[in-house]
Each structure stands twice: as C-alpha cells, then as structure tokens.
Amino acid sequence: MSVMRGDYVVVNYPAQWQPIETAPKDGTWILVHHEWGIDFARWRPSDRWQAEGWETELYDRYGEPAEEIDPTHWMPLPDPPKQENDK
Q1: What is the pLDDT of residues 38-48, one digit of tens each?
Q2: Cα separation, 62 vs 48, whole angstroms
Q3: Element (H, E) at 40
Q4: CA-to-CA distance for 37 and 33, rounded, in angstroms?
C-alpha cells in the first residue's frame, strides 16, 4: 500500500522494481534505475527552457540537471525513520 506525503510516495516495503512506464509523472521523487546505477529522480514537464524528461537531484552550477538519464525501472521511496515520539 502506498500513500502520498508531500512530494513523496512512501510504501511499506518490500517494494519491487517496476517498469518506468508505470512511474508517476507528477513531480514525485522516486528511486530510478538507469545505465549508470540508481538515483533519486522525478519527471520534469517541458517548459520554455527545457524539454520534458527525468531529472536527478543533482544540479550543475547553472541550476541545470547535472545529467540526463534514461531510466528503465522505478521504485517508491521507503518510509522515513520513526521518531522517538512516533507511535
């Protein structure tokens, strides 16, 4: 079962890698697998300056995504750690 928390999808693990075609395209941060490894990424819609596509959490000194990626699979982020006062 997954739930939205802010800009993140969280699930009760174990989650499975899913085809990238099924990934959310609403700006939600997820884990993606691509040819260079695993990254945090989200779908970026096109605007005046950029074409749509997957962007990682890394940016260059000009504020542009540091690398273009072409992921093949995705997985939701895990639940955050519980705080001491959480029940």
Answers
A1: 888 999 888 88
A2: 16
A3: strand 37-44
A4: 6
Residues 6 or more apart whose CB falls under 8 angstroms from that of 48 comprise: none
Minimal CA–CA distance to 5: which of 79, 81, 84, 83? 79
pTM of the model: 0.68
Q: CB 28: neighbour CB atoms within 10 A?
A: 18
4 to each of 7, 50, 59, 81, how far by Cα in Å?
7, 27, 25, 16
What residue spans of the chain are helical by DSSP H? none
Nearby residues of 38 by Cβ (< 8 Å), 6 or more positions away:
31, 32
The identity of residue 55, as a single letter, is: E
Domain ranges of the chain: 2-78
Bridge partner list, 9: 4
